Amino acid sequence: MLEKIEAMAGRIAAQRHLKSLRDGIVLGMPLIIIGSVFLVLGNLPIRGIRYYGKHQRKS
Q1: Cβ–Cβ under 8 Å, residues 18 and 12
Q2: Does the model's pTM come out above 0.85?
Q3: What is the pLDDT of residue 13?
């Protein structure tokens, strides 16, 4: 049973349009991860960081 499933999965994975989708996702993944990190850092739920620039004493 497992051999039949492996053979079918191998045939599906060998299709060139699925390979191109996989390669495109793999190439885009670093950009997605870096963008996600910057989004998290830009929207930290810490009030002091968000309002620091607005409430500084102006001399």
Answers
A1: yes
A2: no
A3: 87
